[in-house]
Amino acid sequence: MNKYTNIADYYDSLTDYYDLLMTQGYYDYQGMANAVYSLIKDGRKKILELGVGTGLFAEKLLALAPEAEFTGVDITLSMLNIARQRLGEWGNLVEADIYNMNLQETFDIAVSSRGVWVISQRGDQTDLRNHTKDIDEDIKGLINVAKHLRQDGLFMLSIQGEHKSYQQNLPTGIVYSQEIEKIGENDEIKSIEKTYFFQRDGEILAQQKLKLNYIKQWKKEEIMEQAGFSFVGIDESKKFHNLSQKVKQIIK
Q1: Are 94 and 72 in contact (CB under 8 A)?
Q2: 13, 25, 32 from 244: Cα distances, Å
Q3: Buried/exposed 208-234: b ≥16 CB within 10 Å, e otherwise
Q4: Residue 112: beta bridge partners?
Q5: Looking at the whole model, is its pTM more than 0.85?
Q6: What percentage of the chain has pLDDT greater than the value 90?
């Protein structure tokens, strides 16, 4: 058991509710798949998704580019099981964490569509949001992603707004609620606590609490530099913050 298993446990206990929420427009999977597809048309066919979840992004990509060579990794087996049902025989799904994975191959594109890392857009500021405990873990994970990219490979991080407290009605009478509380800030990081739960008729069906960090833009740029990435630009659809490798690293 590794130190990230607790994060897998967070999601394992509410996989079905999570999938229900994600299918109700929580993220724009179609828009993100369209953005990646535009690059596949340019010949980049080997795609690695970091945090494939229940396969909703992959499902949209499959419809656009069944010829793509897709691999998705996730630490939560129950989510991978749903993803496999959703994708049929298409793609390779791997139970692994991005910090220690060794897939023995390299890819044209690595996509973090919502889970492991995302870019949080605050006006002109682009912070890096993560689930990790400290920046050293981020650097370790980012270096490992770089090892899995080809020399001219792209690293695509989805762009999202800041988390806010809100409530949403879901099918079958379920109500989703999330509450956000700022719990700390220094020159490098702002931290929040996200509490979210699913309830029906006032009864809580499932709930979780997560700590999320927002690494501020100047520090984000520094650790990307350490991991061997350089900023390419925002894609035309404004769905992704794109980076490329500066120096090729070899998988050991």
Answers
A1: yes
A2: 36, 29, 18
A3: beeebbbbbbebbbebbeebbbeeeee
A4: 157
A5: yes
A6: 71
